[in-house]
Amino acid sequence: MYVELKDINKTFGDYKASDHVSFGIEKGKLIGLLGPSGSGKTTLLHMILGYFDNYKGSIQIDGKELTEISSDSLHSLITIIQQNVFVFDDSIMKNVTMYKDFDNQRIDGAIMAAGLTQLVETKGSDYQCGENGKNLSGGEKQRVSIARAMLSNASILLADEATAALDTTNAQNVIRSILELKDMTRIVVTHSLNRQVLSQFDHIIVMKDGEIVDIGTF
Ligand code: ADP
Ligand code: MG
After folding, report:
1. Per-residue model confidence (pLDDT) at position 167
2. Cβ(86) – ligand 1 distance below 6 Å
3. Edge-to-edge strands of the sheet including 56-61?
4. What is the residue with the minimal CA distance to atom 21 of ligand 1?
């Protein structure tokens, strides 16, 4: 699916979180979204997810205006790897599958891609995550979110600093998994300035103070 943003303006009070933002992403492409903290990256992802209706401009998915897409359809179209992950007080397996049925091979693949294999093998798939995931580390919570995204049938993947809580090896594995999801249209917010990673993005967008200050390839 392609995504197109045209002249997006979004304010929080007097603060311009998105200031005349326009860009398009073709189906299956990988976009890197860079910029300092507070530059409006998360806000932009949240707008694509339909969290806000009070913005100016147009967001289209395959030519259809976001505001005309039901939130149910939007949920099945788009998946996000969040900075803050919601974890249920249930087993690691239930948290990954979100109570849906998948075949075991697919679950194993997602768990491996997210770097959760070791945890599941040592503690078991029944391992209890606890209230708000208190039995998981920050990195493990992020991996749960990654596994969920890998299991979804969404056409669009958004990743918001998906590797921030991971060590270098796990971060690289996750990035590699995202790079391989070539059926998905992907927007990845990253702090990684690793050349090898950046060179694989189809486009890189740099934001500052809500504006796009640079757009191009590595
Ligand atoms: P980034 O992800 O690039 O760090 P954000 O999109 O989270 O930036 O934030 C951009 C600006 O918008 C920040 O100044 C932030 O404080 C502000 N902001 C984000 N969400 C809200 C909100 N719900 N209410 C008020 N201000 C917000
Ligand atoms: Mg952010």
Report:
1. 83
2. no
3. 15-25, 3-12, 56-61, 64-65
4. 12
